Amino acid sequence: MDRFDVIIIGMGPGGETAAERLLAAGRRVAVVERELIGGECAYWACMPSKTLLRAPEARAEAARGASYHGIPRVIFGDPEIAATGYTTGQARARGIDVVTAEVALADAIARPFTYECDPGGTFGLLADRQRGVLAWAWAVAPLASEWIHQAALAIRAQIPIGTLLDQVAQFPTYSEAYLAALEQLRL
Ligand SMILES: Cc1cc2nc3c(=O)[nH]c(=O)nc-3n(C[C@H](O)[C@H](O)[C@H](O)COP(=O)(O)OP(=O)(O)OC[C@H]3O[C@@H](n4cnc5c(N)ncnc54)[C@H](O)[C@@H]3O)c2cc1C
Questions:
Q1: For all residues of the chain together, what is the average pLDDT?
Q2: Phi/psi of residue 109, each to 5°?
Q3: In the chain, beta strands by DSSP E
Q4: Is pTM beyond 0.70 here?
């Protein structure tokens, strides 16, 4: 007659895990399952329910479509060059009532002096005057690849300029340049 150290009744995830660990510990294990090895999770619960959910999820994703508006682009030079949104020409071609701002970073904010000995850098914004949202941002400055994402999100989500002006920037950061440039837009 066979002899076992452990008999496991039920081979759902709980039984399977117990069997696996006992076998790994060198025990002789017998299992008893009255229906299907895998239990509720594999046949009625976790996996089938996720399969049912996936089809409507995929359909919703397909209906949403892709948006290429506000994708950031960067040249990792020294300094970095970053931009997002339409250029002035593209904005005008789309009939946007263009208003622009440009700030010399060393004149406008403190962060350039904490970053390098001979600070420079320029940051520009282009806004849609009628709609009160940003349409383009560009920067030639240290770490521009990082802080351009603030503009990328604002352009993509069409965040109102009033909301952007309410935002508090950490001091001292290059992100403070947004407030300086947004104020210059005078919208
Ligand atoms: C709709 C739904 C979705 C879920 N989604 C998730 C999820 O996404 N992620 C997650 O972690 N969990 C999920 N769960 C929970 C998960 O299914 C359970 O936690 C898990 O199956 C429990 O495992 P178990 O081994 O304890 O029991 P069961 O899976 O119920 O296994 C028990 C086994 O014992 C057998 N058995 C019972 N009595 C006897 C007997 N007297 N003799 C022989 N065999 C017997 C049964 O036939 C069965 O195969 C979901 C549950 C549901 C209902």
A1: 95
A2: -140, 170
A3: 6-9, 29-32, 72-75, 80-85, 98-104, 122-128, 133-141
A4: no
| Local confidence band at 66 (pLDDT 50, 70, 90 cut-offs) | confident
Its sign, for the CA torsion 62, 65, 68, 69, is negative
Q: How confident is the model over 20-49, as a mean pLDDT?
A: 95
Per the listing, tokens 């506000």 go with 70
Determine the average pLDDT of the residues in 92-120.
96
Please tell me the distance between residue 30's alpha carbon and the centre of ligand 1 in angstroms. Answer: 19
CATH for 72-185? 3.30.390.30
SS3 184: helix
Residue 137 · residue 83 · CB < 8 Å: yes
What residue ranges line ligand 1, CB within 6 angstroms? 9-15, 32-36, 39-41, 45-46, 49
Which of ligand 1's atoms lies nearest the C-alpha of 50? Answer: 8
Domain with CATH 3.30.390.30 in the chain: 72-185
